[in-house]
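To whoever picks this up:

The parser on our side crashed when reading a file containing two proteins. I've narrowed it down to the boundary between the first structure block and the second sequence. Both blocks are reproduced below exactly, byte for byte. First block:
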Amino acid sequence: MDSKKVGVITGVIGSIFLLLPVCWYLYTVIAPPPASWYEYMPPMAGSLILVFFLGGNVLGLIFAYLTKLLLKCSTVFGALFISTGLSNFFILAKMFYFSGLFGLLLYTPSIVTILVGVTLVKPLRILVAR
C-alpha cells in the first residue's frame, strides 16, 4: 500500500481518537444525566473519565505523529489536529485546573497534538527560518 494511503488512514484514526473526548463532553452538555445518576456513580468513575480523556488524547497523538511521518505535509489533517487539540485543551482546562506535574501531564498530549498539526500545515523549517 502507498504511504499516502496509509497516512490518510492513520490520520482518520487519529482524528477519531481525538474527537472521542470532545463528543463525549458535548453529549454530557447537550443531554446531561439526571441528578439522581450522580448518587449512584461509583467512586472510581472520575478516574475512569480521566483515563478515557488521557487515553484518547495519547492514542490520537501517536496516530497524529504517524500521520506526520507518512504524509510530511497535509493542510487538512493539520487543521483537524489543531482544532481537536484546541478543543481537548479547552475541555481539560475546564474540567481540571493546572496543578504542577499533574497538570503538565494532563495538558501535554493536547498541546503536542496542536504542535504536530501546526507542522503539518507548514513545515517546521519554514516557520523557524522566518
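<<boundary where parser fails>>
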Amino acid sequence: MSTFLPFVQPSQIRLSRTSEGDLLLELFEATELTADAAQKSSSHSFLLDANARIHLMASLKEALLQPVLPSVPRRLSLSQSHPVSAPIVAPQPPMASSATVDLEARYLNALRQLNCPFEFERSIQFQSDQIKAGRMLAGHDLRLPSSLTQPEILALLHELYFPENHLEALMAQLPTSHHLHLGFEPQSETALFKIYLESDVEPDPPVRYRAWKYAPFSEQCFTSIYTPLRFSSPSQLSQLLLTHFSLLAGPVAIEPSLRALLQSLFSIAEHCMYRTRAEDFELLHVTEDQSDRQSFDLNLYSSRLNVEAVLEQLLLMFSSLGLDQQRCLLSLQQCLALPLGHISFGYHRKQEPFFTLYYGAASVV
C-alpha cells in the first residue's frame, strides 16, 4: 500500500454501501475520482459499522455547521449588530447507539425554537488523554424586551431534560440573573447539558455564575460556582494562581505538567494585556459541590486577538499535557482566524490538569 497523506480532497473520497448494508469509505491517491479512476484500487478502505457511521456523520455535521462568526470583544456580549444564521439541524429520531448525536440535535433544535437573539460560541477541551471538541455555549440576555418569560424558560428546561430535583434552586436564582446560558458537551454514549445563570448581584462571597451540568436520564448533576477574582497586572495574576495551586498541593510541589501549563498561560495573558488594561479581563474561580474540581476561567475577548496570535503558547500548553502537537493543531484549524475567547484551566473532576479554549462568540438571531 502506497504512502497516503491524511489531507485529502473531496474528489479523493468515495462512500458506498456493501451488499450487507455496511458503509464503505475509500480513499484514493491525489488524482480526480473520475469514472475511469473509480475503477482503480483505493489507497485505503474502511468498512464502517452502524456505530462508526453515526460518529462519522456527527463529525461531518460538526465541520459543515460551523457558523460564520464576526469578531466581538467580550464573551457573550449582545452589543454587536452583526447577526449570523443559527446553526440548523433537523432533529433526529432517537437511537440507542446514537445518544450523543440525538442529544446534540435536541440542543440545537431548542436554540432554533427560542425565537429570540442569543450569543453562540464553541470550545475545545484538552486533557492528557483526550481532546474534546463539539462543545457549544449559547447565551440569552434576560434584560431584553423580547427576553424569555418564566414559563418559556421552564418549557426550555423541560425540553433539555433538566433534573426536577434541582429546578427549585435554579428558579430561586432566576429573578436576580441577567443572562441565561445553555451549554452542550458531547460524551461517550451520552452528553452533558449545562445551564448557567449569570448575575452582577454581589453577595458575600460574590458569585458571577451558578451552573448545573447534568447527563440526561441519569442522576449525574454537578453544581458549579464561579466567583470573580481581581488582579491588576500579569505578574499579580501569576502570583495569585501559583499561590492558589501551591496551597492546594500542600507540602507537595505543583505538578510539573500544571506548572508548565500555567507558565504558557501567563505568556498568553501578558501578550493580551499588552494590548489593553488588565481590568478589562475577568478571572473566575470555579468550584463544584459534587467533585474536587479546582479551576479558573480567564476571559480574554477584550484583547481582540484571534486564536492564531497565541498559537505558539497553545502548542506549549499541549506539550505540557503530553498531547501530540500535530493532532492538536489539526483540531484548531477551524478556529485560528476566530476571536480568542477565554481559557479555563486547572484540575478537572478526575484531578488531572486540563485547559479549555473558548473562541468566536457571535450574535445569532
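After patching the parser it read the second block fine. The helical segments are 50-64, 99-112, 150-159, 167-173, 234-249, 256-273, 311-320, 325-332. Residues 293 and 330 are 28 Å apart (CA to CA).
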